[in-house]
Amino acid sequence: MTEKSRTYPRRIDCGGTPIDLTRMTSADREALVTFVAGLPAQDLLFVPRDISHPKVIDAWMRAVDKGAVVSLIARRGDTMVGCTTIFTDTMSWSRHVGELRVLVSPSGRGKGLGRALIQECFVQALELGLKKLIAQMTTDQVGAIAVFEDLGFKAEALLHHHVADRNGAMHDLVVLSHDVDAVAARQDVYGVSDALGG
To answer: Which CATH code of 3.60.21.10, 3.40.630.30, 3.20.20.140, 3.40.190.10 fits the domain covering 10-197?
Structure first.
């Protein structure tokens, strides 16, 4: 498959609701802070650091501006309702692997936004030359796991009591993965490349 590229901003339809996707920049810091403040505490366990902490947000903004991470923002009107990040480590033996992080606000759920954001990330993974995407979440995040599995992610590892939440409660962590080239090839075979590249 020829690598595709997206241009942003772009508009998508999620259950009859228009959603605008843009690349994140440091100018989006305050919108991100507001978005994170509206997420249930359980959702924050999707990411390895506490993104409600200002220093973590600042580090994220610096990484975005330096191009160290690729992030998208989903907006409904002026309100941020979702975001993605693909984290890579170019100095590691696993530099071909991207860690995918997707967050959707409670008001943005049930309309296919999470699925659409994951599909956007597949395009970005192709642009970045990645071969594999992984996603980590606690095992009690059943709805999110189902969306990832429906898109072809498979469980690779289960880490017992790997995450401690703010209250000290322990959670098991599941690591899901997907082969990026396999997604691209399948889209071509079934003639639905527009789902990735359009």
So the answer is: 3.40.630.30
